[in-house]
Design brief:
By secondary structure, the protein is α/β, with parallel strands linked by helices. The chain is built from ten helices and 14 strands. The termini are far apart.
Length: 341
């Protein structure tokens, strides 16, 4: 398998302690103090409470822990329980700074790749904005009675009722240092204050969940969807004798490549920075029959896609009884609110 690494996303020293991490330790100390002070500030001066349940999905590290697939799962779960679900997001990397509701005609440049993917997969109300309070206000004005804040753990200006932290089971907390010496945005001790900790297992790498007693999920492969005509191909054998160029611009691209390996595919790979804006030259070398990518990357390649472009379609498979406990907690919130009124 020929390897082309365009740019690695996560610094290697984030995985272990060494010269680089200790060199940056003074900056990490400053970052950690600032994070603690900010958290303490919002313990005293609480964020804005909006009158509907706010469910925050986030993590304490930088990099892709798998929040977006979980948010999609939560939208479907809560909708199935009768809620009118809204999702709010910053829309990382977008060029339009206004607060916007995502629509069928939205562009990645205006709303960001992850919000557009969530909208495409769920058709739920998705609102992006620099200030999540403003985005949540818009979602509520559109009829939503529960809000999911995507990657909102550190956005304390919006008061929350449920905090869900996603942990990458393989990477976990890296070398345990704050940014920039390590991947931590907040201390590991922060996990003691959240409602749910959910581990994202990369079962493609051989991790077994049989004896796991906590909350977790893994991504079940549904097949490859053609990005030109929309057909879902569940016959993986169709791809096994093809020359494939696998591209990834996500937080932890190795997970995507591990999955392709497990499916028995041969491919050369290209890694781009998270939220990379793709260009035609990123794909074509004159030798590939197939270009494969994640669903998140596919939303950025709509105008570039040809008939040989495919995205890997997956869905969350939960481990444990998290779904039931979350619904019970939200029902308790609503009952308490009714009794109070």
């Amino acid at each position: 398998m020929k390897v082309t690494l365009v740019k690695l996303l996560l610094p290697r020293f984030w995985y272990r302690r060494g010269f680089s991490s200790y060199l940056l330790a003074p900056l990490a100390f400053i970052y950690g103090i600032a994070a603690i002070c900010r958290r303490s500030y919002y313990k005293i001066f609480r964020g804005k409470k909006l009158g509907v349940p706010i469910v925050v999905v986030g993590n304490i590290t930088v990099g892709g822990a798998g929040k977006t697939p979980l948010v999609i799962h939560l939208v479907n779960l809560l909708r199935g329980d009768g809620y009118r679900v809204g999702v709010v997001s910053r829309g990382y990397g977008r060029k339009n700074r206004n607060t916007l509701a995502v629509t069928e005609g939205s562009l990645v440049a205006d709303v960001g790749d992850e919000p557009l993917l969530i909208f495409n997969k769920t058709k739920a109300v998705v609102v992006v904005g620099k200030h999540r309070v403003d985005a949540a206000d818009v979602a509520i004005s559109l009829g939503c009675n529960v809000i999911i804040s995507d990657d909102g753990l550190q956005h304390y200006a919006l008061e929350r009722d449920v905090e869900i932290v996603v942990v990458d089971h393989g990477f976990r907390f890296g070398n345990g240092f704050y940014l920039p010496a390590g991947p931590l945005r907040e201390s590991v001790a922060r996990l003691r204050t959240v409602d749910f900790i959910i581990e994202n297992f990369n079962t493609a790498s051989g991790i077994s969940v049989d004896n796991f007693s906590g909350d977790g999920f893994w991504l079940e492969v549904l097949g490859f969807r053609n990005m030109s005509h929309g057909t879902l191909c569940q016959d993986i054998d169709f791809f096994r004798d093809k020359a494939i160029h696998a591209v990834a611009a996500i937080g932890r691209p190795e997970k995507f490549f591990d999955t392709l390996d497990t499916l028995g595919l041969s491919f050369r790979k290209s890694v781009f920075p998270d939220h990379h804006e793709f260009k035609v030259g990123d794909f074509f070398s004159g030798t590939e029959e197939m270009v494969v990518m994640t669903e998140k990357d596919s939303v950025k390649c709509k105008v570039l896609a040809r008939e040989n472009f495919w995205c890997l379609e997956v869905k969350v498979h939960m481990v444990g009884d998290f779904d039931l406990r979350l619904l019970k907690k939200l029902r308790g919130y609503n009952l308490e609110k009714q009794n109070f009124n």
